[in-house]
Amino acid sequence: MESQKPMAPKPAVAAAVKKEEKISNIRGIKNAFFVIIACAAAAVCIFLFGMGYSGNFEGGTTDGHPLNLAGTVYKGGFIVPILMTLLLTVIVLSVERWIALSSAAGKGNTSKFVADIKADLAANKIDAAMQRCKTQKGSVASVVYNTLVKYKEMDQNDTLSKEQKLTTLRNEVEEATALEMPSLSQNLPILATLTTLGTLVGLLGTVMGMIKSFQALAASGSPDSTELSTGISEALVNTAFGIATGAFAVIFYNFYTNKIDNLSYAIDEIGFSIVATFAATHK
User: Fold this and answer.
1) Global pTM value
2) Which of these, 21, 90, 161, 173, is most buried using a 10 Å CB contact count?
3) CA dihedral in degrees (210, 215, 221, 225; nearest 10)?
4) DSSP H helices in 123-224
5) What is the rounded distance in angstroms from the CA atom of residue 153 to the CA atom of residue 144?
6) What is the dihedral of CA 96, 99, 104, 109, to 10 degrees?
7) Contact criterion met (CB below 8 Å) for 104 and 26
8) CA-based nearest residue to 259, from 26, 20, 22
9) Separation CA 257–CA 270 (nearest Å)
10) How far apart, in whole angstroms, are the C-alpha atoms of residue 191 and residue 90?
């Protein structure tokens, strides 16, 4: 019995396959949980083996007074590695978003790409515009490419009315944009959370350190300015880590949000141009 040969795809199916061609190529970390775990492991190692090194303390043990800043940070307590984890997470995810959004922007200047696509549309060079999208790559190019595929499909459609075709094109722009946006904003909610969480954890560590310092001072029965100042400096280390974490997080979050907004504006602009061109050139 002869084996059946696979049937060749119908034109409609072939068009659908072509439409699914992925040209955005956004690189990024899909699961930030593993990033947090890796940063926690690195923070614990730095805390125990770097800052907890015996040479950072008097007498060669962690029970002695710190001799340098690393020893002072170590005396900040168990909150320190938690804060270091948050700070490292902010740094790693910020670098990851830089790589992801750089790939999302494509190979060339986005503004020039939008202008070139508009020129191709005005000259009715749809195939040239589609080839330009494959060369550019990125999120904007991906949305434009999928919309132009639908544009050609509507151009050859004799069944739908003009208003139905325009509605189909608008829906295609919205659908293609909705598929790209999650990749652009991925991991940004974590940065937004760390803007507040880092500061709060830092303040918690400071309060706990101050409580411990004043308890030791009360137990000694006599005020010791050296002991008190050392305890306060150790407690304020947590504040410094918390503020640094929150500051880095809010700066990078706002920076990347602005980049995503610029890409969204470009997508909206070119999407409107495609629909407007179709409306002007078709009856």
Assistant:
1) 0.84
2) 90
3) -20
4) 126-136, 139-155, 162-185, 188-220
5) 14
6) 150
7) yes
8) 26
9) 20
10) 6
Alpha carbon of 189 to those of 37, 105, 184, 242, 244: distances in Å?
17, 20, 12, 18, 18
Q: Are 65 and 57 in contact (CB under 8 A)?
A: yes
Cα-based distances in Å from 173 to 3, 78, 82, 270:
43, 51, 44, 9
Q: Give the Å distances, CA to CA, from 14 to 21, 42, 76.
A: 11, 49, 63
Walk along the chain (283 residues) and give the pLDDT tens digit of each residue.
444 444 444 444 344 434 445 566 677 788 889 999 999 999 999 999 999 999 999 888 888 888 898 988 998 888 999 999 999 999 999 999 999 999 888 888 888 999 999 899 889 899 999 999 999 989 999 999 999 999 999 988 889 998 999 999 999 999 999 988 888 999 999 999 999 999 999 999 999 888 887 877 777 666 666 667 777 887 888 999 999 999 999 999 999 999 999 999 999 999 999 999 988 887 7
| Residue whose tokens read 């969480």 | 197
- Name the amino acid, one letter, at 15: A
The contacts of residue 88 (CB under 8 Å, 6+ apart) are: 39, 42, 43
Retrieve residue 30's tokens. Answer: 């899909």
